[in-house]
Design brief:
The chain has helices at residues 20-37, 56-61, 75-90, 113-122, 141-150, 167-173, 183-193, 218-227; strands at 6-13, 42-50, 66-70, 98-102, 107-108, 127-134, 163-166, 198-206. The protein is an alpha/beta fold and 230 residues long.
């Protein structure tokens, strides 16, 4: 059993003024649920504003969360900067008792998301590899069905939009790589190779947009699904 004293949510964002408000509202609700379930736990959120040219910063400011600014246009760099901020704010808390939870700015997390992550790490896991699912309102029914047909086994997929790990596991793995794509996959592979104990978690809803911030990412995958014949 591992006691978790701090839960810190990291959200990288690049020009996400339209969607990040819903994301932060859901994170705030999840934080309130955790605070009610685990009195005394410290819950923080940091948004990493990565080369934003729209009104993302103004939307984030309305939620009063911590921010970090980078100019990388790289989710790997942005997510790593967010974890770096977690380290800065961790103070005297032991690394194995600080839980980092990452999601993306176009996601909505369930109310019990942080409660679930806290419980799984508290049960002795170092890493929680959660699932995601696209918003069914954003996609044709056939595309949603194809998605679920390909994602029946969540343990076979890795999504930075729903990932959690202790700072101790992060240090053992060497951390996030400064890459534009698949920084989440590389991190999980490194953590598993380092012997970190891992499990799966609940699902987070992500947007079903097919034009994303980087070619080859989640939106590209959905666009390919849309392009496939019925």
């Amino acid at each position: 059993m591992t006691a978790v004293d701090v839960v810190h949510v990291v959200v990288p964002a690049h020009d996400e003024e339209e969607l990040i408000g819903a994301c932060l509202a859901s994170v705030a609700t999840a934080a309130a649920h955790l605070g009610g379930a685990v009195p005394g736990v410290v819950v923080r959120s940091t948004v990493v504003l990565d080369a934003c040219t729209d009104g993302t910063a103004a939307v984030v400011a309305a939620y009063g969360v911590d921010t970090v600014v980078v100019d990388a246009t790289s989710v790997g760099v942005a997510r790593a900067a967010g974890v770096g901020r977690v380290v800065e704010l961790a103070g005297g808390h032991r690394a194995e008792r600080v839980l980092v939870a990452t999601t993306d700015a176009d996601c909505v997390v369930p109310d019990g998301w942080l409660v679930d992550l806290h419980a799984r790490v508290g049960a002795g896991h170092d890493l929680v590899v959660g699932a995601v699912h696209p918003d069914p309102d954003d996609l044709p029914v056939g595309v949603v069905e194809r998605w679920w047909a390909r994602h029946r086994r969540p343990e076979e997929h890795v999504h930075g939009a729903n990932l959690a790990f202790t700072l101790a596991a992060y240090a053992r793995s060497g951390g996030l790589q400064p890459v534009e794509l698949h920084e989440d996959v590389l991190l999980v592979e490194a953590m598993r190779a380092a012997g970190c104990r891992w499990t799966t978690g609940t699902s987070v809803r992500t947007s079903g947009r097919t034009a994303g911030r980087v070619r080859g990412g989640f939106a590209t995958y959905l666009a390919d699904l849309v392009a496939q014949p019925e």
